[in-house]
Amino acid sequence: MKSLVILCFSLMAMALRPEGGYDVGDTVSDFKLKNVDGQMVSLSDFKGAKGFIVIFDCNTCPMSKAYNSRIIELNKKFSSQGFPVIAINPNSAKVSEGESYDKMVAYAKSHNYDFPYLYDDSQETVRKFYPTNTPHVFVLNKISNQLKVAYIGAIDNNSRDGSKADKHYVEDAVNDLLVGKSVATPKTRAIGCSIKWKNS
Questions:
Q1: CA distance 23 to 30
Q2: What phi and psi values does residue 153 have, to the nearest 5 degrees?
Q3: pLDDT digits (tens, 9 = 90+) for 124-150
Q4: What residues contact 131, with CB distance under 8 A and at least 6 apart?
Q5: Using an 8 Å Cβ cutoff, are 149 and 25 in contact?
Q6: What is d(CA 25, CA 63) in angstroms, rounded to the nearest whole number?
Q7: Phi and psi for 40 in degrees, rounded to 5?
Q8: What's the pTM?
């Protein structure tokens, strides 16, 4: 009986998780999501962008908090070079109250975000990317006016202390793209909190 209950919960969890998601080399479709400043934001709004560092991040995950300053630094380093950070909260506020839009607004303000932090209430965009954790990064590269996924995974190899990281996956990926190279390490494992999917 116990094993049957566990199986039922496992099947429910699988049903709530979308299948697929973008892979390296795939073309990403544009989206329009609400930013913490109340404005709607699309990738097409960034006319001079060479690509994007799309980071699925949230308010409450300890791993996200540990990476917060590093995410801010990624935007400071690369936005002026054509690769701005676009953060998206993938979590449903119906499942985790701490991920509500109002909490996002307060969080972004308290951390002085100078990049978009977008709210996906329907989780439609999240399902297209299919991140598994927060934070989870997708580096996009613009090729012939199409955005191609060039890297998927973690920011670096030390989720607790950035000063101890000796592999900086996102920085290396963007630096490769800036000089016209293919990304040397196109995929790594993202470590963090699981996505909080809606129940329906």
A1: 16
A2: 150, -145
A3: 999 999 999 999 999 999 999 999 999
A4: 21, 56, 90, 138, 190, 195
A5: yes
A6: 27
A7: -85, 135
A8: 0.89
The alpha-helical segments, DSSP class H, found in 99-165 are 101-110, 124-129
Handedness of CA 45, 46, 48, 53 (dihedral sign): negative
Q: Which domains does the chain have, with CATH numbers?
A: 20-194 (3.40.30.10)
Which residues lie below 8 Å from residue 64, measured CB to CB, with a gap of 6+? 57, 58, 134, 135, 192, 193
pLDDT tens per residue across span 51-101:
999 999 999 999 999 999 999 999 999 999 999 999 999 999 999 999 999
**Cα 101 from Cα 89, distance rounded (Å):** 9
Q: How far apart are CA 39 and CA 57, in angstroms?
A: 19
Residue matched to tokens 């909490």: 103
In the structure encoding, which two tokens stand for residue 140, read together? 């996009």
Q: Which residues contact 97 (CB under 8 A, 6 or more apart)?
A: 103
In 3D, which of 31, 33, 23 has the Cα closest to residue 116? 33
Instruction: Supply φ then ψ for residue 9, to 5 degrees.
Output: -65, -35
Q: How far apart, in whole angstroms, are the C-alpha atoms of residue 102 and residue 91?
A: 14
Nearest C-alpha neighbor of 22 from the set 73, 56, 62, 70? 56
Bond prior to 116 in cis (omega within 30° of 0): no
Tokens of 97: 């109250």
